[in-house]
Amino acid sequence: MQDLMTKIISLTKQRGFIFPSSEIYGGFASCYDFGPLGVELKNNIKKAWWKEMTMKQENVVGLDAAILMSPKVWQASGHLTAGFADELVECKKCHHRFRKDFLEKDSCPDCKGELTEPKKFNLMMKTFVGPIEDENSMAYLRAETCQGIYMNFKNVLNSSRQKVPFGIAQIGKAFRNEITPGNFIFRTREFEQMEMQWFCHPKEADKFFDYWREERMKWYLDLGVKKENLRFREVEKEELAHYARRANDIEYKFPFGWKEIEGIHNRGDWDLSNHSKNSGEDLKYFDEESGEKYFPHIIETSAGADRSFLAFLSDAFCEIKGGRTETTESTKEAEYVLKINKSLAPIKVAVLPLVKNKPDLVKKAKEIYQMIKSEFFCQYEEAGSIGRRYRRQDEAGTMFCITVDFETLEKGDVTIRDRDTMKQERIKVSELKETLKQKFNV
Fold first, then answer.
1. CB contact set of 331 (below 8 Å; sequence gap of 6+)
2. How far does CA 160 lie from the centroid of its chain?
3. DSSP 3-state percent helix, strand, coil across the chain (nearest 5)
4. What are residue 347's phi and psi, to 5 degrees?
5. Lowest mean pLDDT: which of 7-21, 172-186, 188-202, 363-377?
6. CA dist list (Å): 238 to 89, 247, 300
7. Number of domain units in the chain
8. Which tens digits make up the pLDDT trace of 159-199?
9. How many helices (H) and strands (E) does the chain have?
10. Which of 13, 165, 183, 192 could pair covalently with 305 via S-S, beta carbons 3.0-4.6 A apart?
């Protein structure tokens, strides 16, 4: 299975999805840059999540809070205490460091050397605000996006005239000084979260936990992830975070094993009550109809945009032994196809002249490209044989290829090729936009 992961990583670089950060300087551990196709795919994932939360769901509004906040926020939330720390061990021989809970044995996995006793290692990333670097100017890069939501609970409540139950959604960067990042973009020190905090009456918390649990699983399934590659995992009591009353993980079966891509948490009233106590600001909700005043309980859905990216990519990756007859010429080598959901595909349509040495074909192909590019993310490509171009587009996950040939010049129609079925059909150029809209359900 690791061989499969190697192929996926290779393809992501070759096709411009993901590059190692600072590569010309030897790279920078656990940091990655999203290339032209990667940024499109990631944006499409975030758009699909945002649409699901703020448009399809009821009473969910958006927020974009600052990355830098008062250190008092992190003190009150428990992030500066031992509660937000991993146990670090170091090999006495090679001096490599590891998270204790990631080790299967009590010896160094690299050289089998003896390990030190575990020490607590806080995951917060420190920085300084202002010209003087001392304790008074110390600040932190946020370790999670949800704290910014809690800081703005009253602001959103009052400005948008919301009533409990309601939710606040946010997408943004978070930073954790992980001891042992790894598995490509699965565990990194800089990552992006897609989080929604649902504020509800304490008596309805269990009901909404079950609701959001099912809704979040359905989102992945609706976007084409195979059912057999997804599962729920009930987090055991001894594993629960200090704030959590209950937690379910949505796990995906990666080539390197079952791993969490999203967590659904019942956080109780810990966050609002704790911030109320530490700030002196009354964060209780007053129900005008019942006259009741209480701290809302919070159901959190926390998904990793990068982890979702890797899950969608892994699920879509197909290796076809011997190639596809239409696209592989005489080599019969294996081909890769990204059968990614059409709403997530980074390139929706590719426009390909049959050959590039016929000016009339090239001119017509470019006219068609210009005609549709404002409504669909398109790519124009003329280099190489038509079979090789089909193959490159398959590897990029392009949903449809439009081929402009000599019949186009005579009859005014083009060939549309479906990525998954390889079925081809002739469509009039005058009907092309409408046909594509129907295929993409827009």
1. 323
2. 28
3. 35, 30, 35
4. -110, 125
5. 172-186
6. 21, 11, 19
7. 2
8. 998 999 999 999 999 999 988 888 999 999 999 999 999 99
9. 12, 23
10. 192
Classify residue 322: in a domain, yes or no.
Answer: no
pTM: 0.92
Q: Is 236 left (phi over 0), alpha (psi -120 to 50) or beta?
A: beta
Residue where a domain terminates, one of 314, 330, 362: 314
C-alpha to C-alpha distance for 227 and 231, rounded to whole angstroms: 8
* Closest C-alpha to 220, from 304, 149, 320: 304
C-alpha to C-alpha distances, 189 to 142, 182, 186, 251, 334, nearest whole angstrom: 11, 10, 10, 20, 35
My answer on whether 343 and 283 are in the same domain is no
d(CA 313, CA 225): 10
For 430, the token pair is 């005058």
Give dist(CA 340, CA 262) in Å, integer: 20
Report whether 74 contacts 275 (CB < 8 A): no
Question: 222 in a domain, yes or no?
Answer: yes
C-alpha closest to that of 160 among 265, 48, 63: 63
Task: Give the CATH number of the domain where residue 242 resides.
Answer: 3.30.930.10
Report the pLDDT value the prediction gives residue 352, as an integer from 0 to 100: 98
